[in-house]
Design brief:
Layout: E1 10-14, H1 18-29, E2 33-37, H2 41-50, E3 52-53, E4 57-61, E5 67-68, H3 72-77, E6 81-84, H4 91-96, E7 106-109, H5 122-129, E8 138-141, H6 146-149, E9 155-160, H7 164-174, E10 179-184, H8 187-210, H9 214-234, H10 245-256, H11 261-270, H12 275-280, H13 287-302, H14 307-318, H15 322-330
Parallel strand pairs: 1-2, 1-6, 2-5, 6-7, 7-8, 9-10
Antiparallel strand pairs: 3-4, 8-9
Helix pairs in contact: 8-9, 8-10, 8-11, 8-13, 9-10, 13-14, 14-15
């Protein structure tokens, strides 16, 4: 059996970061008509002129045939599919810029994060701003660094939707010989997995900054997955989702990869940088920073134990010494490993 064949579609990408640019290239290679939009018109014009996103995806050529449109309403007007590929904290304001949108279009989110204060996942934010898409948003997520996907390095991701037919439809758009796409109906689980793994990656980066070892990182990743699962199940996710691409898969790549901005940010913190100083060293957004605050407050509200996330919060927002945080994690009361309520 070969790659699924599908009709060629009109697709608009919202966001000219590394991931949005990469998906533009992938979808164009799949034969679709692609438009790229970005809030920063100068950035978009520079990409159009140079056919390269030197700021976020250097040394990757952008093929001719991709269109660049600076007016968001013009960009989405004729699109059959709209892909949001922007940081989670600007999603609400960006979606609000769209004045009119036909409910027959399909909206796809490739965003990983949890909104502060509301605790909403990206698909829920879109549904709130664009209520005609209630329970219609599709999510694509998984272990997929843009730096590798753009070089055709084999990658697998998962697409999730309330209706499996919607997931399969989007699966056909993206799947290629180097980009394998699975389907799921656990929208809650895949979005939580994609968001929470960034917090654990910050913790692993802190360990790297402190000069700790592989044993420590393995423990953080394993127990971090337990926290993700515990919180996810409390929020009605399928526990098996967290053993999949959006859970364990994304957790592994984000915690160990040289491309991981969250791991790198954590490493800076472990080396003694303050929150603001570490953020100033980042070219791209480390989603885990804001997500840490969201999950700390959400877990407190619903009374779910997330000790690693809690310590990351204390380090970032309360100025706690990372060495003390590690010591406290190691000296917690003894526990059983597998908790029957979620695994």
């Amino acid at each position: 059996m070969g790659i699924i064949d599908c009709k060629k579609a009109r697709i608009t990408l919202i966001g000219a970061g590394s991931w949005g640019t990469t998906l533009c290239i992938l979808l164009h290679k799949n034969g679709h008509k692609v438009i790229l939009w970005d809030f920063f018109k100068e950035h978009l014009a520079k990409i159009r002129e140079e056919l390269e996103n030197k700021k976020y995806l250097p040394n990757i050529s952008i093929p001719q045939g991709i269109s660049f449109v600076s007016d968001i309403n013009e960009a989405v007007k004729d699109a059959e599919y709209i892909v949001f590929a922007i940081p989670s904290h600007v999603l609400r304001d960006t979606a609000s810029l769209i004045k009119s949108i036909n409910k027959d279009k399909k909206i796809i989110s490739v965003i990983k994060g949890i909104e502060n204060n509301s605790f909403l996942r990206p698909s829920q934010i879109i549904e709130e701003v664009l209520p005609q898409f209630k329970k219609k948003v599709v999510v694509l997520t998984g272990p997929s660094h843009a730096e590798e996907v753009s070089k055709n390095i084999p990658t697998s991701v998962v697409v999730s939707a309330y209706k499996i037919e919607d997931a399969k439809e989007v699966q056909k758009l993206f799947i290629s010989p180097c980009f394998r796409v699975y389907t799921s109906q656990d929208l809650i689980g895949v979005e939580l997995g994609g968001a929470l793994k960034n917090i654990i990656a910050i913790a692993v980066g802190i360990c790297d900054g402190l000069g700790l070892g592989d044993n420590t990182k393995a423990a953080l990743m394993t127990r971090g997955l337990a926290e993700i699962s515990r919180l996810g199940v409390t929020l009605n996710a399928n526990p098996h989702t967290f053993a999949g691409l959006s859970g364990m898969g994304d957790l592994i790549v984000t915690c160990i990869s040289k491309h991981s901005r969250n791991r790198f940010f954590g490493e800076l913190i472990g080396k003694g940088y303050s929150l603001n100083k570490a953020l100033s060293k980042m070219t791209m957004v480390a989603e885990g920073v804001r997500t840490t605050e969201s999950i700390y407050n959400l877990a407190s509200e619903i009374r779910v134990e997330v000790p690693i996330c809690e310590q990351v919060y204390n380090i970032l927002y309360e100025g706690k010494n990372p060495k003390i945080a590690v010591k406290e994690l190691m000296q917690r009361n003894p526990k059983i490993e597998l908790e029957p309520n979620f695994m």
